[in-house]
C-alpha cells in the first residue's frame, strides 16, 4: 500500500487503531514496571530493611518514576493523527529504566 494511502485509497490515513494500540502498549508496560517496583518494595519489607536493599528499592522507584514520566509524555503525543516517531534519546531512556529496575530490584534480594 503506498505511503499515506488508506485502504479506501482516499489519501488519508485512518489514525484510529495503531496509535491506540501503541498507547495501550505503553500503559501495559508502565503497569508491569509498577508491579515490579511493588514486588521490590514487598521483598525489601519482608526481608528486613537494610541499607543495600533500601538503596535498591529507592533506585527502583526512581527508575519507575522516570519511566512513568516518559511513558506519560509519549502517550500524550499519540493523540494526534500523525504522531512523531519516538526519539532515539527517549528510547534509550526507556531501555535504561527497564534495565535499571532489573539491576536495582535484584539489590533488594539478599
From TrEMBL:
Record-annotated DUF202 domain positions: 14-76
Subcellular location: Endomembrane system
Keyword annotations: Membrane, Transmembrane, Transmembrane helix
Domain of life: Bacteria
Signal peptide boundaries: none
Transmembrane stretches, start-end: 52-70, 90-109
Protein name: DUF202 domain-containing protein
Amino acid at each position: 500500500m503506498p505511503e499515506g494511502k488508506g485502504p479506501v485509497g482516499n489519501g488519508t490515513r485512518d489514525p484510529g487503531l495503531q496509535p491506540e494500540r501503541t498507547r495501550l502498549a505503553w500503559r501495559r508496560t508502565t503497569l508491569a514496571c509498577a508491579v515490579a517496583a511493588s514486588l521490590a518494595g514487598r521483598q525489601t519489607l519482608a526481608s528486613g530493611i537494610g541499607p543495600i536493599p533500601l538503596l535498591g528499592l529507592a533506585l527502583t522507584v526512581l527508575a519507575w518514576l522516570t519511566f512513568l514520566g516518559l511513558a506519560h509524555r509519549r502517550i500524550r503525543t499519540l493523540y494526534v493523527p500523525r504522531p512523531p516517531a519516538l526519539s532515539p534519546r527517549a528510547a534509550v531512556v526507556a531501555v535504561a529504566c527497564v534495565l535499571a529496575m532489573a539491576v536495582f530490584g535484584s539489590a533488594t534480594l539478599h
